[in-house]
C-alpha cells in the first residue's frame, strides 16, 4: 500500500511540474456575449459567413450582427524557472555515506539466522502429573 501511494504521489508531482512549465493559449470567439467557438492551439473560427449586412443601425444584438462579435485570447506562459538539482560531494561526504550505509547494512546481518541450541533434543518425560498429584487446579 505504501509503495502504491508513493507511485501515485510521484506521478501527481510529475504532472504538476509538466503543467507548471507548459505554456498554451486559448482563442475564444463570442457573439452576443455567447461563446460560439473555442480553439486551444489555433485561431477560433469567426462567424463572418453569418453576418447580416444591415443598413439601419440597431441597438439589439442578434446572432451574426456585425458589431456584436469579438475575439478573446487567454494565454498561459510557461514557467522556465525550474531549479535543477545539483549535488556536490566532497571526500568527507563520501566517507560519511560509506560508513553510514556499511553500519546500517551490517546492523541486521545476524538476524536472519535464528539459532536454537536445543532444537535436536526432546523435552523430558513427565512420569507423574504433578498438578493432579497435589490437587492444584486453576479455576
UniProtKB/TrEMBL annotation:
Keywords: Signal. The keyword Signal applies. Residues 1-25 form the signal peptide. It comes from the Bacteria. Coiled coil: none annotated. InterPro entries: DUF8199 (IPR058512), HYC_CC_PP (IPR058060). This is Secreted protein.
Amino acid at each position: 500500500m505504501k509503495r502504491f501511494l508513493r507511485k501515485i504521489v510521484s506521478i501527481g508531482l510529475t504532472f504538476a511540474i509538466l503543467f507548471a512549465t507548459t505554456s498554451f493559449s486559448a482563442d475564444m470567439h463570442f457573439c452576443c456575449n455567447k461563446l460560439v467557438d473555442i480553439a486551444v492551439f489555433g485561431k477560433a473560427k469567426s462567424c463572418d459567413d453569418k453576418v447580416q449586412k444591415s443598413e439601419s443601425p440597431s441597438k439589439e444584438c442578434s446572432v451574426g450582427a456585425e458589431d456584436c462579435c469579438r475575439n478573446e485570447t487567454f494565454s498561459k506562459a510557461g514557467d522556465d524557472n525550474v531549479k535543477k538539482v545539483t549535488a556536490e560531494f566532497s571526500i568527507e561526504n563520501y566517507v560519511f555515506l560509506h560508513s553510514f550505509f556499511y553500519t546500517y547494512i551490517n546492523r541486521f546481518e545476524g538476524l536472519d539466522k535464528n539459532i536454537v541450541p536445543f532444537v535436536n533434543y526432546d523435552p523430558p518425560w513427565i512420569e507423574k502429573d504433578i498438578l493432579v498429584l497435589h490437587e492444584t487446579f486453576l479455576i
